[in-house]
Amino acid sequence: MLQIKSFTFNPFAENTYVLYDETREALIIDPGCYEKQEKGELFDFIASNGLEPVKLVNTHCHIDHVLGNAFVKNTYDIPLWYHKEEEVILRAVGSYAPNYGFAQYQDSKADHYIKEGEWIKFGNNKLLCIWVPGHSPGHLVFYDELTKSCIGGDALFKGSIGRTDLPGGHHETLIQAIKTKLFVLPDEVTVYPGHGPETSIGEEKKTNPFVGENITH
């Protein structure tokens, strides 16, 4: 059965996820670890649980979600996957990272471009890749139908949505994508977002002030 472990890293309070099961194979999603202590926290969890990371995946490639890409890729010698539309977003990170205090940022490159509808397989699990653009052009979410779990990145938050004022962002696109790609999932699906606490599709459909049924503007 799929297990999900979350970590909160870097000054942006970004959620990094390690997914694994009884086979001990693991998937690492959006490693935001930058400081030595953060990298150690992730490494120690993986080691103490006897996990074997097999893939590194990005929901999208804004700086707070990719700070640990090079560390994870190099430490475990595993491939990096993300959507091709995120390539330009990731390539830009190195130019502005020092402005945010990340002078030691290390770049990383894709080993595979994810296409919508593709499956990410590890252990006894398979995650459906769903394209949810708007926060960034190639933003993906990863859905496990068996456990009704969704790694949502920065598309949908508890009571909020991803910002759309960054390069490649588009508000109307995000609203439409949430309604047509995420709100068609079962209400009981748990959403594990890129920032903040977990929520559910059902809760957000009813109460989210940006896209919920009770929206007043």
Structure explained in plain terms:
The protein has 217 residues and is an alpha/beta fold. Helix content is 25%, strand content 29%. Strand 3 (25-29), helix 1 (36-48) and strand 4 form a beta-alpha-beta unit. The radius of gyration is 16 Å and the shape is globular. It has helices at 36-48, 63-66, 69-76, 87-96, 171-182, 201-207, and strands spanning 3-9, 14-20, 25-29, 52-57, 80-83, 112-114, 119-122, 125-131, 140-144, 149-153, 156-157, 160-161, 190-193, 199-200. The termini are far apart. The strands form 3 sheets. A 6-stranded mixed sheet has the order 1-2-3-4-5-6, with helices on one face. A 6-stranded mixed sheet has the order 7-8-9-10-13-14. It has a single domain, classed as Metallo-beta-lactamase, Chain A (4-Layer Sandwich).
Compile the SSE list and pairings.
Elements: E1 3-9, E2 14-20, E3 25-29, H1 36-48, E4 52-57, H2 63-66, H3 69-76, E5 80-83, H4 87-96, E6 112-114, E7 119-122, E8 125-131, E9 140-144, E10 149-153, E11 156-157, E12 160-161, H5 171-182, E13 190-193, E14 199-200, H6 201-207
Parallel strand pairs: 3-4, 4-5, 5-6, 10-13
Antiparallel strand pairs: 1-2, 2-3, 7-8, 8-9, 9-10, 11-12, 13-14
Domain Metallo-beta-lactamase: 13-195
Keywords: Hydrolase, Metal-binding, Zinc
Protein name: MBL fold metallo-hydrolase
